[in-house]
Fold these 4 entries.
Entry 1:
Amino acid sequence: GAGVSQSPRYKVAKRGQDVALRCDPISGHVSLFWYQQALGQGPEFLTYFQNEAQLDKSGLPSDRFFAERPEGSVSTLKIQRTQQEDSAVYLCASSSNSPVGWDEQFFGPGTRLTVL
Amino acid sequence: AQSVTQLDSHVSVSEGTPVLLRCNYSSSYSPSLFWYVQHPNKGLQLLLKYTSAATLVKGINGFEAEFKKSETSFHLTKPSAHMSDAAEYFCVVNSGNTPLVFGKGTRLSVIA
């Protein structure tokens, strides 16, 4: 079956532009996670959804970052007024169960965002 | 609070020799521990996980890890490296209802 997909795979934005990153989780997966992976670092948690509810957004670095999952399946991570420090790979993961972290998270290939 | 320290940023081994990737963790509660592998341009893949059952955990592709509470370690090993094992490896900790916390990664190179 299909895994987690993300689009676009690569995005180049000029500083100050808004971007939207899409995640299609594995069908039927309840939980969806977003992570940010800076160059040479491990992924860092951004936010978590259980169905359409955003249960944890403690990792979002600023109010320029916004995520939604309105119908409990596809999710979009939006970054407003992008800055150079936003350049990173954004990873999406889904798992079949909640609570957070107990079940295997399946990761997408990521979106590499470069802000010029 | 939880944290993970991967003691080596880069490990290089010859094909057919053993692999050891070191990981130490810190957790206030009984942790779950994971190793993920990341090949270039591919998603993270779970190698193995420890969730308070047997302390020696076997994973895919011949990898295994041993949970040592007294040493707060969860080192990843493989008896014989293969060229296809070259990748980035992440040690990950989680306790209860908290997000996964990743280490900074260890890049494994395998020399023919």
Entry 2:
Amino acid sequence: DIVMTQSPDSLAVSLGERATINCKSSQSVLYSSNNKNYLAWYQQKPGQPPNLLIYWASTREFGVPDRFSGSGSGTDFTLTISSLQAEDVAVYYCQQYYSTPPTFGPGTKVDIK
Amino acid sequence: EVQLVESGGGLVQPGGSLRLSCAASGFTFSTYWMTWVRQAPGKGLEWVANIKQDGSEKYYVDSVKGRFTIFRDNTENSLYLQMNSLRAEDTAVYYCARIRGEGERYRALEYWGQGTLVTVSS
């Protein structure tokens, strides 16, 4: 199974400042035949189901604000919130869907400083 | 509007059984892979199982193999998870989710239900 790790476990950022979350996979999730990274990011607010933010490592889901961006390739990925808003307080998970079982990172909690 | 509504959760004793249901609407259910994901209280997300559009392929996380069965009824637009030999460590909110992309297996999870809580305890 592909093991996903995230760092940091939690972070507190001032409103309007940048938040950066890292995700690493134990093996590459880049599929060479289509040059796509099988990596997604989800946001989960308390008491709610996860919400898909980013897929293919960098494609924003419809309706997701453009302050959210994803980058990286192979085994190392980053989710960036360019200007943190109060409504972004949540836990963020990365997930690989390159192979079965699809696996999630342990999550990163984002709070307001 | 895509909607996924889970039901069937509750309190069950260790070794017991439970069947979860997920009623889907707002899309052509029979053309999508579907998934169950669970989340233990205060913990992260764990993929449990998924099923092909016609039910001919099913995959499970190792910890539930032989105990859980995923199946679907495309005439009723419903997804199910039959859970047998339940253990305390199966306690979680169980989410039904639709894979992004018709006919595709290896994709992100685009739509999620609100979840149903399963508690395994004596």
Entry 3:
Amino acid sequence: AQTVTQSQPEMSVQEAETVTLSCTYDTSESDYYLFWYKQPPSRQMILVIRQEAYKQQNATENRFSVNFQKAAKSFSLKISDSQLGDAAMYFCAYRNPTSGTYKYIFGTGTRLKVLA
Amino acid sequence: DAGITQSPRHKVTETGTPVTLRCHQTENHRYMYWYRQDPGHGLRLIHYSYGVKDTDKGEVSDGYSVSRSKTEDFLLTLESATSSQTSVYFCAIAGTSGYEQYFGPGTRLTVT
């Protein structure tokens, strides 16, 4: 069974600095999708970034980028120039598009604090 | 933003009472999901639907049932609420060709 692990329950970063959130996953599949979701205090789940496993190029969305290491089954999120609005829970998620069930598996989350 | 609403947004109920949470979407997406979120556990899948009247269990389905009689509505029922079902419940949707899920605003349920 696939699993997603976020080993950092909480992280802190100084405003304007860079922080990296870790995510590892376990799967025997070769084709899958990985996601990072942000959950601010408002509780709304917001998609931050998406990575297709068949793409070697790391996904980037403005200040957010990933380091996707397929062989190591690692999918870390880098936030550059951190802002106070980046403070949130961040969840890593996995989906296997060939499973036919469209199920997603989530990690337990990392709480990011941004210090002014 | 994806058109997903959840009702009610907050509910307090007593142990043993039935509770129904509603998820409504305007996106005509095929797949709908119910999750619960608890500290230290992330999001755990309760049930999901892959079409009208087509549903399946997730990892924490005990004590919950679902129904989907229309594409746009997915109901989650707690037949007899227990204190362990106190949680925040999220509905999510995904399209057939889509990759990511879109989430509703969540429902905070407290069982006393």
Entry 4:
Amino acid sequence: KAGVTQTPRYLIKTRGQQVTLSCSPISGHRSVSWYQQTPGQGLQFLFEYFSETQRNKGNFPGRFSGRQFSNSRSEMNVSTLELGDSALYLCASSPGEVYTDTQYFGPGTRLTVL
Amino acid sequence: AQSVAQPEDQVNVAEGNPLTVKCTYSVSGNPYLFWYVQYPNRGLQFLLKYITGDNLVKGSYGFEAEFNKSQTSFHLKKPSALVSDSALYFCAVPEDTGRRALTFGSGTRLQVQP
């Protein structure tokens, strides 16, 4: 089975722009979660989707949003980019609704904001 | 909220020697604990998890973890370290009962010297 794929792998934007990141989960997985990884804050949960519905949201401003499509693919959007949004954005998928299911991570999208 | 702590920023071990990466937890109710590894410029790879049952959990790449309820610890171990084990290791726990969002420790960098 193919793993979680994320596109693009690298992205450079300037302050004020917006960006969309894409995640394709493992085939058959219906839950997708997003995390932000920075040297200062570590790994932080952004949001989780299951069956096209946002189930949980982390403590991030409203500039961060996401959605999930009927094929379980997910996108996250960051508007009005700030320098502090530079990070590795990780997507993870898991099979179903059980919260103890293992989350399998993609390689991440490295976002640099100039 | 549930949390994990990794008390060591870095662990150095010689190739062939046993390794231990420490993790302590704070949870309400039954603990569900995970270990992930991150190689440079990569996402997180799942190693193992504790849900219930045996206190010694076996995982990928020869790793195992020992769950200790009295010490609230879930240390990652390997009998014989390889240079290729050098990476960043994270333990994680669901941030709250019933929530899939994972809370991660700060990470421990493992350096295996030849």
